Amino acid sequence: MKEYRDIIILVLFAVIAGGALSGVYGMTREQIAATEKLERTNALKAVLPTLSAAATEVIIDKDGLKIPAVLDSANGTFSGAVLELETKKGYAGTIKFMVGVDKDRHVTGLYILAQNETPGLGTKAKSQTWWGQFLGKGQDNFKFKVKKDGGDADAITAATITSRAVTNQVDLGLNALAAHLEKR
Q: Which candidate, 6, 31, 88, 103, has a CA 20 to 30 Å from the CA of 137?
């Protein structure tokens, strides 16, 4: 009989804990969504300060890869874009970030939205000290590969995998944007 009592207590504890967790999630869901929306808005402004209210959200499709983007085409002329990039090739998995691009297709900023890289190493990708090397650079004046791979980008010390993942994804995004703009 004692065995059943222990099982019943354990099941009741799990049900109560699950219910409490569900309740807390329900109460905070809207606040979490509002915070994520605010972070996205702030990221858009950070990577492309000239982004106008007339900018439109699009999906750039390049060889089956779909890249969410915000294109700014004032008066029908391309004036900039924000690419929402994601790579699963980070040292600790997925890295999601935004890259701003001006009318000349040069990088205006980079903002890491989500990552699980090693603290003190891969997390340095969030710092302008590292990604600042991309500012004002485009595929016409910079090879978006780390130097170990024959490119122009300095890798973060002891975080080459993270550096490679972000740099390669920026290159891929710029290629996709160029192809998209040529189709227009």
A: 88
CA distance 178 to 184: 10
This model's pTM is above 0.70: yes
Cα distance between residue 168 and residue 98, in whole Å: 14
What's the CA gap between 178 and 77, in Å, rounded? 14
State the Cα angle at 146 between 128 and 158, rounded to 5°. Answer: 70
- Report whether 132 contacts 46 (CB < 8 A): no
Q: Contact at 8 Å (CB) between 92 and 117?
A: yes
Please state, as a whole number, how many other Cβ atoms lie within 10 Å of the Cβ of residue 90.
24
Helix intervals (H) in 48-159: 128-131
* Cα gap 35→38, rounded to integer Å: 5
